[in-house]
Amino acid sequence: MRYFEDLTPSTGAREPRAWLRSSRPRISLNGRWDFKLWDSVPSGEPVVGEGWGPIEVPGHWVLQGYDRPRYTNTAFPFPIDPPYTPSVNPTGDHVRWFDLPADWPIDGAILRFEGVDSAFKVWVNGGEVGTAKGSRLPSEFEVGSLLRPGRNLLAVRVHQWSSGSYLEDQDMWWLPGIFRDVTLLARPLIDDVFVHASYDHVTGGGTLTVETEPGAVVRVPELGVVTEPGVPVELAAVEPWSAEVPRLYDATVEVPGETVELRIGFRTVAMVHGVFTANGRPLFFRGVNRHEHDERRGRALSVDAMRRDLVLMKQHNLNAVRTAHYPPHPAFLDLCDELGLWVIDECDIETHGFIYTDWRGNPADDPDWAPMMLDRMRRMVERDKNHPSVVIWSLANESDRGGNFGELAAWTRSRDPGRAVFYERDRTYEFSDFYSLMYPPLEDLEAIGTRTEDVTTEDSALEARRRALPFILAEYAHAMGNGPGGLADYQRVLERYPRLQGGFVWEWIDHGLLLPGATDHVYGGDFGERLHGTNFCIDGLLFPDRTPSPGLTEYKKVLEPVRITGLLTIENHRTFTSTDDLEFLWSVTADGVEVDSGRLEVPEIAPGASACLEPPTTISSEVERVLTVRAVLAKDTAWANAGHEVAWSQFVLEQAVAVSTGSGLPVVDRGEVLRLGGGEFDRTTGRLTRLYGQEVDGPQLDLWRAPTDNDNGQGGRNGVTQEWRAAGLDRLLHRVDGVDVLDDGLVVRTRVAPEGLGVGVRTTYRWTASDDGLRLTVDVQPEGEWAGTAVTPRCGSWPRVGVRLELPKALENVQWYGGGPGEAYADSRDASRIGRYERTVDDLQTPYVVPQENGARMDVRWASLTDAAGNGFRVTGSPHFQLTARRWTTEDLEQARHRSDLTPRAHIYLTLDLAQNGLGSASCGPPTRIGLEVAPYTFTLTFRPAGSKSVDNYFP
Ligand code: IPT
């Protein structure tokens, strides 16, 4: 059997060991290599010749102009016939020369690969060295006997498909290649180190035991420790490591000729009466699932990108990361130790595609595959065992139930009793220290919190064991496209019950790829492939270029570890630290303009405690006054500077006083044109054609939005788009039933209804005017069987209720007073804060990789749209409205598959909504909880000239 199809994990590889920073000589073999791609497996050894080109290592050939990347979600892109691969098996030969100085210690040298996807064979100077599988795990080979001083030739043959691929179905791009570092290491004298550094929260002391080479000297200078391997050192006082205070002690392990540098964190994790604790306190994960992704480099991430990920996580109040669904680059875990995050380190195993055989042949349940799986677990645990940040080992993702997991769990527990073991997908949870689920509805989460959940296994002993386990929400809130909605609801339930120890949003970053020379991010289906997962991997809190999406801003707000509530209570929700590192600032705005500010005197608040304070006293005015209280870092940290905002809250102190718009102006009849105050109307259609000198068209009832990924649901499940289309909301026609000129205004009566159906909406636009402005009241009355008949399917919600207005394209400067600065929707609005903001229409767009409804600002009191000279209009809403403005129509947005499909039109389209349906998370989760009911609605908008000096009041 061919080595890349057999079930041996590797041949010729060394035993796994820790990733160590050693003083022994090393040579990086990263850089430019020679490369040739074959579409099937060639024979013989790679020899550079015709048809070879350059390649950057680490890297994926499919992102460097050879072949193309491929994305599937659950499906294997080859027939399910384990362990075999198709004859078409892209194979990349990688070759490079390197020089060894005459005095370089060749004897016993090791060639180390941090990650090669998915199986490979190595030659040095023509001699065969070995083979390995396990894409996201290191492999080491002894190559000393094949090396020589001077020029040496290294050749690596990499196969995209292997038996290992059946274990690597992780819902991501299939990206073959040598994608992590390649290093030549001089023979280690210290082969391995296993640090055990525990913390006793009762005494404040620590115990340090370092297993390593007999005879080595272990030093922790700061603690005055000089000791030998295997001997526990009791320390009367140490500072513990936690994600909140990631205290590390520098240490060394020395033998003559080699020093290994370590950074030790003292911490103890334990299960105490069904609760997972660290240093004696229950842990609560504010987490995210992170794939390794770079828009140009795929999984060949730079250390800078890793650091940026972690800095962004810390700045957004996250404290935990699940390395979904494989061990990350080892440098990432060093950074987690340094910056402070709790880590669930997940093994490189997922056999998800076996859902298509009803799990027949699932490797996880086939003893023949146990060695391959155990090998992966061992390589992860051995590599990562010295990281204080890693507190949980995850056996795999989405691989159903399988006996092999028993073996993995047993080995892991005996090798490392100092950490917990996790596996979500086996509903008996036999091998897991946690109960866990993905994407449960809120009611189910609540039931788990109160221990009233349904039975998950018939085996009563296992069922009883599971019921006593703490719960981790492994994945929830699918951040695909616009969303997720509902984060605040989940957070409230997670925080309410001690059994629920937090959750991990799916997922960190959109996997959009920018191929050489391209400007649009690609996703599944962009290459005309038949089997693909469309944009299901464009589901991150970061855009592919690592800029935070509105979802991350919302998550930050929802996660706040310090809560400012009531007028005025401050709660400290952290686990280990007081509020000592924070400063509390307040300000008061009147109609959005700051009128007063100061610093609050806040006593030190212990973790879990709260303090009640006197709110600042300020002077009242006739406009809306808002108090904002903010908690900011008092000092610089490793991940943010002093002044960085951790938490905030707003309180409306005083509402605006309503003013009347004065006596009614009459309609002036000019034949085809009717004039009323600042508006001109078409006599036949009743449409507004001029508004304070600007040519406009509208306003017209708008019920449609460009469906979001979450509106669409998954395969039609839980989504609303299908229902909306069935009810004809995407094909509404407007009929004018009458334009009535009254003594004090104009009434335009219309009926808005879909083609082919009997339902409709009576919509009346009532216009009145005074010297102070032009006022529109829109009245919306649904008619007919929206609730469903034999021919009209049930329609329980509308996408939106608002009016759309076409404006000259020059009115591109938008100023508003209301929620901002970013977009907000009914179930994703916690991060929206009341203020005065200014943006261009272009800046109001949220750049989702797959265009869809976006950009709404909520709770808007007033907004103005003006041109460069300041001409335009201002609109005030009662009640507050939502504002969306773009250079394309909703229909254009709906049609577009990539951002470059959106071409600005000659107008701006402004939508002023009373409300919109929530976002939810139905692209991989339950239906939206906040729907916009089909019901009668009324709302009022008042238009004034831009820059009008009249009172900016709105109608509370
Ligand atoms: C879940 C997977 O674990 C994750 O990798 C990703 O595919 C996510 O879904 C959706 O983006 S599995 C799902 C069947 C619950």
UniProtKB/TrEMBL annotation:
UniProt EC number: 3.2.1.23
InterPro entries in the cross-refs: B-gal_small/dom_5, Bact_Beta-galactosidase, Beta-gal/glucu_dom_sf, Gal_mutarotase_sf_dom, Galactose-bd-like_sf, GH, GH-type_carb-bd, Glyco_hydro_2
Reaction catalysed by this enzyme: Hydrolysis of terminal non-reducing beta-D-galactose residues in beta-D-galactosides
Molecular function as annotated in GO: beta-galactosidase activity
Keywords for this protein: Glycosidase, Hydrolase
Domain Beta galactosidase small chain/, chain residue ranges per copy: 675-944
Enzyme class: hydrolase
PANTHER family in UniProt: BETA-GALACTOSIDASE
Family membership noted in the UniProt record: Belongs to the glycosyl hydrolase 2 family.
Name recorded for this polypeptide: Beta-galactosidase
Taxonomic path: Bacteria, Bacillati, Actinomycetota, Actinomycetes, Propionibacteriales
